[in-house]
Amino acid sequence: MRIFTKKLPHPDLPAEEKAQLLQNSEYQERMVESTFLYLTLDLPTAPLYKDEKEQLIIPQVPLFSILAKFNGSTEKEYKTYKENFLKRFQLTRLPPYLIFCIKRFTKNNFFVEKNPTIVNFPITNVDLREYLSEEVQATHSHTTYDLIANIVHDGKPSEGSYRIHVLHHGTGKWYELQDLQVTDILPQMITLSEAYIQIWKRREEDETNQQGA
Questions:
Q1: Are the C-beta atoms of residues 143 and 152 closer than 8 Å to each other?
Q2: What is the pLDDT averaged over residues 145-153?
Q3: Which residues are CB-neighbours of 91 under 8 A, at least 6 positions away?
């Protein structure tokens, strides 16, 4: 992927000093190309309100909303101890298998917090062509992915448990695994879970969809 980074002046500086610093080369946007093992998808902050019946509302977000991080134009601010940066990302190559890590856990000095937001995603036919830079789109004939594995975290950050949804490629059926228990699961039930890590397989031209989802 390409990573574009722009250093930001300290927010407490006067406007004139900020404008002057932005003219320096140190504050100009720079680009580096980097390989990746997986893509980290950031969840929006979960709302802390209840509905009229005092029931907690489970927030939801579409997969393509959090994938927008890699469209080459969406900027996000990153803070370090001393400096702040704006970064944007753009994919330049798509691998046969793609791993998404949905960032549910955040750490502070005292404890770990978990974001319960549900990600709405299709099981099949996720096209990532628009996240490639324009000049490399023509070189990628296959940009569509199907989900083949989904790791779920249930419960509190320190006390929770994991479940795994796996596609049996030969039959197109989905199974849920937890410890030694293996059960059938409907594809539409997978999308209701608190997905944490997902593995997607690129669909080749001669492949047919056997999942029926």
A1: no
A2: 96
A3: 1, 70, 128, 131, 132, 133
Rounded to 5°, angle at Cα 105 from 94 and 4: 40
Residue of 134, 156, 112, 131 lying closest to 63 (CA atoms)? 131
How does pLDDT run across 181-211, given as a tens digit for each residue? 999 999 999 998 899 999 999 998 655 444 4
Burial, 132: exposed, middle or buried (Cβ in 10 Å; 0-12, 13-18, 19+)? buried
Work out how many domains the chain is built from and give that number.
Answer: 1
Q: Which residues lie below 8 Å from residue 46, measured CB to CB, with a gap of 6+?
A: 59, 115, 116, 117
Asked whether the predicted pLDDT for residue 213 surpasses 50, the reply is: no
State the distance between the two ends of the chain, measured CA to CA, in whole angstroms: 30
Residue 150 inside a domain? The answer is: yes
The residue among 44, 184, 180 whose CA lies nearest residue 120 is 44
Which burial class, exposed, middle or buried, applies to 100 when counting CB atoms under 10 A from its CB (0-12, 13-18, 19+)? buried
DSSP-assigned letters across all residues of 158-179 = TT-EEEEEEEETTTTEEEEEET
Is 211 part of a structural domain of the chain?
no
pTM of structure: 0.85
Domain residue limits at 111: 2-202
